[in-house]
Amino acid sequence: MNDVHNEKGTNKSLSLFFKSSFIVSVVIIVISSILLYFTFTFDIVPPILNRGIQPATFPKALLILIIALTLLTYFISLKNPWKNEKKLPNSFYITLLSFFVFITVSKFLDFFLGIALLSIIVSYFWGERRVTYLIMVSIIFPLIVFIFFETILGLRFPPGIITNLYYG
Amino acid sequence: MENLGLIFAPLFSYKLLIVLFFGTIFGLILGVLPGLGPTTGGALILPFTMTLDPLSAIVLLTAIYCAGTYGGAITAILINTPGTPAAAATCLDGYPLAQKGEAGRALGMATVSSVIGGIASVIVLIFFAPLLANLAYEFGQPEYFALAIFGLTMLASIGEGSPIKNLIAGAFGILISTVGKDFMTSIDRFTFGINELTEGIGFIPVVVGLFAISEMLTQSTLINQIFNRVALKAVKLPSIDDYKKTWKTIIRSSGIGSFIGVLPAEGGTVASLIGYAEAKRWSKKPEDFGKGSIEGIAGAEAANNAATGGAMVPTLALGIPGSATTAVILTGLIIHGVRPGPDLFREQPEFLYGIFGSMLIANILFFVLGFFGAKIFARITLVPNKLLWPMIFAVSVCGTYSLNQSIIDVWLMLLFGVIGFFMRRYGFSVVPVIIGLILGELVEGTLRQSLVIFDGNWLMFLQRPIALTFFVLSLIALSFPLIKRKKKK
User: What would the pLDDT profile of A80-130 be if each residue is shown by its tens digit?
Assistant: First the structure.
């Protein structure tokens, strides 16, 4: 898919540390190594109760496999560089930021308010300026979904400043 | 074979017919909307299926699968953007033909070849799934382990993108399945002191995150994209001349799609590409391909819909998903307490044949709805992303929360959305993660139980003929991309 070899747009000319193949490989290897470290902290089953292999053995093997395959991918990328990806636009970062807004608001204030805020941020920064549509997408639609889940599936949403009003 | 009559049972159940009708409409809508599709849609609707009985729930999901796979063709032909990845090959000839003022003819051919491919694959499913299930009676733990490994290696080698990246993604999926209490010893793994993680990471947060949320992030990078839409007057049935040109292609692609579908891989996407390539290879006018060839549309569409029934074969017979959407269907089966495998064929034939019959009806339904309603469904693409995706987010969040009523699940969904976005950006397919997650418990469980049986002797795997066959096939699957690369050179 993205393994476009020796084509226009590949990042052959970039210095080693800025190549996406290098950055991605480092990120995968660092995370895998941290997780591999954690596998050494798993409890060990006494030999008398142990059936087959220790609980840590299988994840360890997987993580070593991931690290080995990542190294292999990286060395292949030296010969066949990955496609140079376009810079991410501001709208991406705003959408990502709205996820954090949602997490914070839904944790400390209200779940429904979190959805409404995210919807209005995303819709506005993706280009919607009409107030009626913004209200529809951030209040009316989430409200319909909320009531639908609450009544049809009998779901109880986490407490919050608005949800508590609904539940009385 | 004595159960064949049960196929017609859904026809006499008004409840199943209603479910089928709504499933087909919903599938078409999902298929038409670029970035959604039957996998994401199926995952979003899973929580709602809890209000239904198991058969109705699975019928709903399979109707979404069949209709969603076809629905992708509508967008591929009219706006040159595949509604689903499986419709990518349809763009190549569908859009040029539509630009020539023959959108109705292109959609007519896509509809007819999709239906024929879909029905042919259900016939394959009806006859082949029980045979495979019978074979599975011979399987013990080592055989299931070898089979799961074979499934993962096939996925890596014939799936989209780099095989090594696919293997990394598959291993990551299996790793996710190890989070929580170890099922054999109850020892915590990767829980980091978070109580909610002791039960493990659920399928829904991962699949909704990897598909819906990562797609939302992808769409955030495309907000200024402009689609060139081709107007559609009405869908036209193919002419006698078109049938003469394409009947061999449709039959060939139906066979290819059904076969590829049975293999554990990205079913429809790979099938449509191979179906298209073979249609071009056998065509008398290969130079017309890419310029609006009717054979090109037939080859791609018959193959991707034929993969639907094929992918259901290993899902129902072995509990090994044949594609990402069948992984969602498999999850649906599990959360409704139905365990796929040979016992299901023996103990609940009415359930299975109900699914087979429903898939047949779904194919006929999307033919009717597609033929008369394509123009309406095409209008759905007019809903702007700036309104559509916030709404999908609301459904994703509530749907993910609803299964376990856990806010941690919602956060995990967002985390996997971000992971999925970067995976796709750097050429890692997210499908192997899903299949790895589904197969993870099977892989680890059967490996550990096999080692108990073998008293820790790994070499004993090689003394089991069926397991050995699967290991040899896995090696062949892994070396296949290398052979392909050498041949290219």
Answer: 888 877 889 999 999 999 999 999 999 999 999 999 999 999 999 999 889
HSE toward the beta carbon, residue B74, CA cutoff 13 A:
32
Question: Could you state, in order of their start, the residue ranges of all structural domains in chain B?
Answer: 4-225+237-488
End-to-end alpha carbon distance in chain A: 53
Quote the pTM value. 0.86
Question: In this complex, do B393 and A118 lie within 8 Å of one another by their Cβ atoms?
Answer: yes
Q: Classify B337 in phi/psi space as left (phi over 0), alpha (psi -120 to 50) or beta.
A: left
Looking up tokens 């070849």 gives: B113
**Contact call for A73 and B162, based on CB within 8 A:** yes
Rg (CA), chain B: 22
A85/B161 touch (CB, cutoff 8 Å), yes or no: no
Question: Residue A137 has what DSSP assignment?
Answer: I
Q: In this complex, how many residue pairs, one in chain A and one in chain B, have their CB atoms less than 8 Å apart?
A: 179
CA distance B438 to A160: 35
Bridge partner residues of B189 (DSSP): B180
Q: Touching check for B221 and chain A: CB below 8 Å?
A: yes
B chain contacts of residue A43, beta-carbon cutoff 8 Å: 187-188
What's chain A's Rg over C-alpha atoms? 24
Q: pLDDT tens, B189-235?
A: 999 888 888 989 988 899 889 988 998 999 999 887 766 667 777 77
Segment B98-117 shows an average pLDDT of 91
Enumerate residues 30 to 59 of chain B having a beta carbon within 8 A of any beta carbon in chain A.
Answer: 47-48, 50-51
Sign of CA dihedral B156, B162, B164, B168: negative
Whether chain B has a CB inside 8 Å of the CB on A75: the answer is no
Helix axes of B324-335 and B54-79: crossing angle, nearest 10 degrees = 160
Q: Contact at 8 Å (CB) between B226 and B381?
A: no
Task: List CB contacts (< 8 A) between B216 and chain A.
Answer: 95, 122
Record: contact B448-A58, CB cut-off 8 A: yes
Q: What span, in angstroms and rounded, lies between the C-alpha atoms of B69 and B85?
A: 9
Angle, vertex CA A37, rays to CA A31 and CA A43, nearest 5:
130
| DSSP H helical ranges for chain A | 20-39, 57-79, 90-108, 111-125, 131-135, 141-152, 163-167
CB-based contact, B286 to chain A, within 8 Å: no
A109–B contact, CB cutoff 8 A: no
Contacts of A42 in chain B (CB under 8 A): 187-189
Residue B382 forms contact with A (CB below 8 Å) = no
Query: Which two tokens mark B434?
Result: 């899903």
CA B406 to chain centre: 27
Q: What φ, ψ does residue B33 adopt, rounded to 5°?
A: -80, 115
Phi-psi region of B323 (alpha: psi -120 to 50; beta: other; left: phi over 0): beta
Whether residue A138 and residue B185 make contact (CB cut-off 8 A), yes or no, is no
